[in-house]
Amino acid sequence: MSLIASGRTQTITDIEAETVLNDAPPKKTPSKTRVPGRTRFEPFTVVSYVCVSVFGLFCLIPLWMILAGSFTDESVLAANGYSFWPAPFSLAAYQLLFTGQSLINGYIASLFITVVGTALSLSCTASLAWVIARRLPRISRPLTIFAYIPMLFTGGLVPLYLLVTQVLNLSNSWFSVILPVMLAPFLIFVAVSFFRQLPEEILDSARIDGAGELRVFFQIVIPLSKPILAVLGLFYAVTYWNEWFMALLFISDPDKFPLQLILQNLISNVTNAATLPGASASQAAAPVYQLRFAMTVMTIAPILFAYPFAQRFFVKGLTLGATKG
Amino acid sequence: MQRGTAVADAGPADVMASRPAPHATRTARRRKPTSRGTLGLLLLALPGVIWFLVFAYGPMAGLVVAFKDFNVSDGIFGSPWNGLQNFAYFFSSGDAPRIVINTIFLNALFLAASLGAGLLLALMLNEIKGHFTRRFGQSIIFFPYFVSPIVISIILQAVLAGVGGRGGMVNNVLNVFDLPQVNWYTEPGAWPWILTIVKVWQLGGYTSVIFLAAITSIPEEVYEAAAIDGASRARMARSVTTPLLLPTLGILIVLGVGRIFFGDFATIYAIVGDNGTLFPTTDVIDTYVFRSLRTVGDFGTTAAIGLFQSVVGFVFVSVAVLVQRRVDKESSIL
Predict the structure, then answer these.
(1) pLDDT tens digits, residue range B264-300?
(2) CA separation for the pair A252, A269 (Å, rounded)
(3) Which partner from A65, B171, B191, B226 sits 20 to 30 angstroms from A281, CA to CA?
(4) A6 and A131: one domain?
């Protein structure tokens, strides 16, 4: 217990140090009249605000366009292909989506791939990374090279395709989407470098108390590594949620399509209303374009909702390396 | 290869891996486990090792298909050998120069544009006062990184094509200025630039976060000294921050060049798909491989192209790693 507490205090001091750093500029504001570099309205600062705002809009407008489009009546979309304001307002596409089975199937598939995939990825990444980080003689070093070589050389698409379809017979199984992308060597090494920074004293004290290697890993290392596990888990989860290529290769049964693949079918089969989700009832009147936007909204909605809470982990994961240097 | 952003993904890890780790715990770590403990640790590593054997090294062994006249009934190892015929077929088809040039040209363009935009954005974000405002801006420009290629493709169609080639946002804007309408999806010349804009949209914020992290590690005293010397904020960005970011930039360039032979399959295929009109400028090795696998189903030739790509890519990556090691030693100031 005390071990975890000490770990936590460390994080808190880190955060405090960070806030102090970030609060530093405002504290210096009294002296800004004397130091020219600190004045707020320098041309470059103004230009920066403008440029960042413009780029921010550039990033947001496409997303707004999709959201607005998904609530806009098909008549407007069919003339322009887009809309910035949902007028005339229409829920037709969402009604279609929620009455059909396709969206639910898509969500089930995507959720299965994301949840099971992330769990598998995370457990394998953490355990392999710990063995590498443990610096065992004659084991850790070869394992490092073993995990590093695939970053340099890959077998390519054809052997992978043959492996999954001919050898493992995973066609039309969700595992054919999960397994090929399950481990990212890059993220393993991120975990290794985090594990190597864990305070050795804590691990030693556990060993002196008689904890075995596995117990040290599960009861000390894992709890102390929650921040990095959150980062890795999020990166894996986004990869799985957005994974579409593996599904395109290996899944041909429409009932098992994950959301991304359903979306892709909406692009390629835009004229073929019969293949649209939930369109069976009123094929002629199916709001094709609106449906596309609505489906897109449903696909990015989970990321959009999770993003405000998760984005600091992403930033942290990215900056983990750069700032430590 | 399925990870579209592998180029950038490799960035921070290698930046980090190349930094010396804190030495405090290094010697203490050598504590030897008991033999039973070692067994436990081996068990721990086992699932990961099996995965690597099956999904990373298995396909490498499967590359023998490139030297075979593959047929499904005989399988990978039973099919008859046919020497270098598959390679000869690919190189005599006339597609080879086009897709190799496209791959290198497009990736170089993407790399330059996303790094340039990321660097500029980081310098500008650094000007933004207030912790919350900066965080907010950073979050917004970072978001496109999480948008899937398929969604990007849908956005792009709404922006460029509208319905059946008429309409679309860009054309409506052109209309306002009385400029002629363009049917973008039949204009191969425009696509390298369109894809570059997409890449900047997708990776600009992501890259800027990496640079911004490097900026925060620059000591405040440097700026104070610059301020005493009367430097403006613009001058500081140009003469203090930028030079200090060069090592980070160098590493990202080297890593990007190392990945230059691997096209960004997901984004390009999701956007261009099977639109043959655009192939002259957008067809890269990965999309070519995928298409010939799907349409022709010739495993041997396709594997040969894949092997060619892997080997040339390996040369690029290895050189990049070696260069990065050297560069990083020299730039240990940061």
Answers:
(1) 788 888 888 888 888 888 888 888 888 888 877 778 8
(2) 15
(3) A65
(4) no
Q: Residue A199: inside a domain, yes or no?
A: yes
Residues of A in Cβ contact (< 8 Å) with B303: 156, 158-159
In a domain, B262, yes or no: yes
d(CA A70, CA A82): 9
SS3 content of chain B, % helix, strand, coil (to 5): 75, 0, 25
Helices B149-160 and B191-216, axial angle in degrees (round to 10): 130
More confident residue, B260 or B297: B260
Alpha helix (H) residue ranges in chain A: 2-27, 43-70, 74-80, 92-99, 102-133, 140-152, 157-162, 175-178, 185-195, 200-208, 213-215, 222-224, 226-242, 245-250, 259-268, 288-324
Q: For chain A, list residues with pLDDT below 70.
A: 1-40, 268-286, 316-325
Asked if residues B222 and B240 have their Cβ atoms less than 8 Å apart, the reply is yes
Among residues B264, B310, B258, the alpha carbon closest in space to that of B66 is found at B310
CA distance A135 to A117: 28
Q: CATH number of the domain at A238, please.
A: 1.10.3720.10
Q: Of A234, A268, A302, at which residue does a domain stop?
A: A268
A18 and A152 fall within a common domain: no
Q: Is residue A77 part of a domain?
A: no
Q: Which of B148, B318, B334 sits opposite A244 (nearest CB)?
A: B148
Q: How far apart, in whole angstroms, are the C-alpha atoms of residue B212 and residue B215?
A: 5
Q: How far apart are CA B237 and CA A43, in angstroms?
A: 12
Residue A165 has what DSSP assignment? I
Q: End-to-end distance of chain A based on CA atoms, in angstroms?
A: 31
Facing A193 at nearest CB: one of B16, B52, B121: B16
Three-class secondary structure of residue B68 per DSSP: strand
Residue A234 structure tokens? 């999020």
SS (H, E, C) B39-67: HHHHHHHHHHHHHHHHHHHHHHHHHHHHH
B189 min Cα distance to partner chain A (Å): 23
Q: What is the mean pLDDT of chain B?
A: 81
The half-sphere exposure of B106 on its side-chain side, counting CA atoms within 13 A, is 31
**What CA–CA distances, in Å, run from A238 to A235, A303, B94, B202, B327?**
5, 8, 39, 15, 33
Measured CA to CA in angstroms, residue B208 lies from A9, A184, A210 at distances of 30, 23, 47
Ranking A29-38, B24-33, B64-73 by mean pLDDT, the lowest is A29-38
A184 touches chain B (CB under 8 A): yes
Position B7 scores a pLDDT of 36
**Shortest CA gap B244–chain A (Å):** 13
